[in-house]
Amino acid sequence: MQELEIINLWKQYDEKLEKSISLNRRVIAELQQQKAKNALRPAKQIKRLAVVAGLIYVALLSFLVYNSLKFENIFFVASLGISIVITLIAIVVYIHQLYLINDIDNSESVIHIQQKLADLQTSTLKIVRILLLQLPFYSTWYINFQWIKESPNMFYFIHLPIVFLFALAAIWLYRNINIKNMHKKWFKLLFSGAEWTAIVKSGQFLKEIEHFEKA
């Protein structure tokens, strides 16, 4: 009889211990989830600011283009027009990213947060790649036919090679900015701002949940 009582007490102790461990795991997971969500706040603020700044930038460029619609200003108008289109694309993507962050804030599932965070990382890299395509057009907006006519050597042998190098740099960055290169120094230098750091930090908190649950 005494042995049965000891066995029952041992079973009760095991059940209480398992419940306590399960509760602790759940509390820690919830804390890490909240930390992951809070870590995204700087990115959210930056993206909101980017939308506002982008709209102001587009309005300014549009005003300049509207008041420069002459054939002799073709390089100026074309360069700014391309920048306007790319910036508008960026604004749409940033608005989508804000939706993703809000969706993460309202999520209770770790898997759902991870999926949205992965989408946010991919989207952030994609928009940087698109924005960098503007690079060569920063060196073309001030070209005009008079300059080409009066200084052809400077234009063809100095300026055009510079534009070509900017274009090559834009293409190289567009092709190489991806998750696979996250460990490289140039990538870390390019993505060292608060926006990307916040996204990475949020992901690290979620990985800690996975490690804890596997332990």
Gross morphology is elongated
Distance between the termini: 38 Å
If you average the pLDDT, what whole number results? 79
Put simply, the count of helices is 8
Q: How large a portion of the residues is in β-strands, by DSSP E? A: under 5%
Count of beta strands? 0
Radius of gyration: 27 Å
Task: Characterize the largest beta sheet: strand count, sense, and whether it forms a barrel.
Answer: none
What's the number of structural domains?
1
SSE order, as H and E? HHHHHHHH
Based on secondary structure, the structural category is mainly alpha
Helical content stands at over 70%
Runs in which pLDDT lies below 50 for 5 or more consecutive residues are: none
Give descriptors for this structure:
single chain; 8 helices; mainly alpha; 215 residues
Structure summarized in a few sentences:
The protein is mainly alpha-helical and 215 residues long. It has one domain. The protein is 82% helix and 0% strand.
Outline the structure in words.
The chain is mostly helical and 215 residues long. The chain has one domain (31-214). Helix content is 82%, strand content 0%. It is built from eight helices and no strands. α4 runs antiparallel to α8 (194-214). The longest helix has 38 residues, at 2-39. The protein starts with a helix and ends with a helix. 13% of the residues are buried. The mean pLDDT is 79.
Give the SSE map.
Blueprint: H1 2-39, H2 41-66, H3 74-105, H4 110-132, H5 145-150, H6 152-176, H7 185-190, H8 194-214
